[in-house]
Structures are given as C-alpha cells and as structure tokens.
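User: For a teaching handout, I'd like to show students what a predicted protein-ligand complex looks like in token form. I'll give you the sequence and the SMILES for ribulose-5-phosphate. Please answer with just the structure.
Assistant: Understood, here is the input followed by the structure.
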Amino acid sequence: MGIFLQLALDFVDLSRALLVAESAMAAGADWLEAGTPLIKSEGLNAVRELRRRFPHHCIVADMKIMDAGRIEVECAAKAGANLVDVLGAASDATIAECIQAGKNYGAKIVVDLISVPDPVTRARQVEALGADYLTVHVAIDDQMVGRDPFETLRQVSQAVQIPVGVAGGINSATAAQAVASGASYIIVGGAITKAKNPDQATREIRRAIDEQVVIPTTLFHRVGAAHIIEALKQVSAANLSDALHRSGVLPDIRPVFAGLKVAGRVLTVRTYPGDWAKPVEAIDRAEPGDVIVIDAGGVGPAVWGELATHSAIQRHVAGVVIHGGLRDAGDIAPLRFPAFSRLVMPNAGEPKGFGEIGIPIRIGQMTIETGDWLVGDDDGVVVLPQKIAVEYANRAMDVLERENRIREEIKSGKTLATVTELLRWEKKVS
Ligand SMILES: O=C(CO)[C@H](O)[C@H](O)COP(=O)(O)O
C-alpha cells in the first residue's frame, strides 16, 4: 500500500480553501481534510462542499472531538466525511461513542494524539477500543518552539497494528523522514496551504514521499535555538512585529539609510549623552553578527560616526541602533552599514567613559538585554527578547509564509479585501 498524502485545509474562508484544494488534489494529494479552523468558521457546510466538489476523494473532518462523540460523528458523516477525528485526550467513553457512531453512519474514526502525555500507552488503549486510525500530531503552537513528531511516530507505529499517520509541520524536506518513521498517511497543512504555488508544493511533497528524498526548503520549517538568525534573516520588521502581537517596536528610532536590513543578536551599551567611549569600545567586545544597541538617553551629541562604522565593519558587526545621535551620514552611506538612530547631527561629544557595555537598557517602554535579537529595516526596529526568541522567530516565519500566499492570490486578480473577506472579518465593535 502506498503512503497517503492528506491535505489539511486550515483556512477560515471556504473560497480560499477550495482554491488550494483544486490545485493540490490535481497535483497528487489523496485525502482532503476540512481543517478545524475551517469547520469552526464555516461549519459542516465546508465538509458538504468538499464532498460535492471532490465526490471520489476521501474527505476527513478534523472535528477534534472532545465530548458528545455520537452526535458530532453523526453530523460529520452525514455531511459527507469518510474519516472523522476525535482527540486522544477525550475520555474512553467519548472515543467509544465515536467508534460506535462511525460504524452506524459509515465513517472511520481517527484518534488524534495531539498533546497526549503518554502517546504510546494511549495509542494501545484506543486501538483496543476499536479506533481505525491514529495520528501522531505536534500542534502548530508546539511546532513554534521547535518540536517535531518523528520519535513519537516511530514509537507509536511500532506499538500498534492499525495505520498511524503524522501531522505537525511536515514539508518536502521532512516527508521522507515521516515515511521512514512509520507513517501510513502524511498530513500536510501549511507547506501546501501557504505555498506560493500549491500545485508545485504538492508535487514536491508527493515526490519526497514516493521516492524517499529530501527536497530542501527554506520556508515551512521551524528553527531551534542554534538557527534563530536563519529565520530572522528572512523576515521583515513588520513580520516580526505582527508575530509579537504588534509589539516589540523601538519608538522614534528610524533607519538612517534606506534599503538596508539588519537581523542579529543584540549587544547593549549604555552611555552618557555624547559620550562615544563605550559605544566604540563595544565594537571590540562584539561577536561577528552582533548588532550594537546604544542608549544615549535619546539626545545628542552624536555617539557614532564614520570611523566607528569602519571599525564595526572590520569586526563584522551587523549594524547599530542608537537611542541618541549619529553623524557622518554621507560618509557612512556608501559603506552600506545598517544604522538606525533617533537623531542625525554633525556634532560629536567627548569620550569620557561613562556607562557600561552588556547591561540591560531601556528605550521607551522596552527593556533590551544583551542576547536579545532584533530585526531592522526601512520600517524601523523590532526587538525580540531572548527567552521567547525561538518561538517568535518561527511565528514571524509563519506570518511571512501566510503573506506570501495572500500576495499570490492578489496577483491573480483579486483585491486584498476580497482575499481576506475583510467585510466578514472586520472586528465588530460592541
Ligand atoms: O490539525 C492541524 C492543527 O491542529 C493541522 O491541520 C496539522 O497540524 C497540519 O498542518 P501543518 O502541516 O501546518 O502542521
């Protein structure tokens, strides 16, 4: 038996879901899943519509049932689902009801092991209850902190006889690993639904599964602590701010030169207005790729200029952010060194040596520490605290990927309001 590719339509708008479904199913996906967000947004009408448009495909309703198993399975089956998902975290009574209702209404029951503390034990239990399929699943939110499903998949697939599938950020680079770890079906959401070209993305994942090959991708894969910079180099300050729920922006600090982006780890400096000693000493303390963030109290005179920039370039410093003043802008411009500053002025201060390097600083409402991360570009600077850096670097990638997909839909002749069904999704004021 071949390995099935299940496309998970995690949209909130049926029209967008159908657009991707049409191309992905034609490109080689086997099973078609109405994702939980789609069912919550559109109701079981989403399943009915998928059944109508794809009469010969297996339709999966990702109901994530937690209670009232009988009625939820009945509704999904009557809407046209062949497979209905219940959570492994649900009680045995709920799962047993789902299984009985499935038999009655002609649907198979998939037990989703998402967030189950002991998946191997639970897998054996639900197999004994009569489940038809088991899915090992790393939640989208858990993917953001770098978790993957492969070791659990290997263990669960060895522990039970029924087919085991996998979900959790699978892409063209990891689909072969999913097969090697024992998957009988592979569920792919974002790597197809956020792809600029879902048709091509589906073909690549199909090939990765069938030929057991790794097809590298820079998108749809999540980084761990050692690779934060790889994600931050791809995203914009706006992407990162969106991921951070619109926070993280350094107020009043503007790019001095247009078209230059910086992403890097922060080295902080606190200094006295105009005292450029610690900023220049920090260059010698910086690691390659660091961004020096200077708090000079938000006022002049300048604490950074052309010679400091040459020095920073020698040390492979990635950029500078100044809550204070910069000078020599005309001489720095051709050096293409990313510089962000509150003020630009001709006068420098004296090197008196006040202040410290590497201590927490405060700019506006933001506390910034050495080891934090930042992204700066034409929009300004967004800081990412170290303790949440892995998660929000990944969430910023997710924002970027979603925008990539929306942009393609606009370019195909729609407007932003149409693609996002803005009238429907405006925040209602009570
Ligand atoms: O059920 C889901 C989330 O709970 C998703 O459909 C599933 O995780 C697949 O999407 P992705 O490939 O983006 O992880």
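For the handout, you might add this sentence: Residues 8, 10, 35-36, 62, 139-140, 167-170, 187-191 surround ribulose-5-phosphate (CB under 6 Å).
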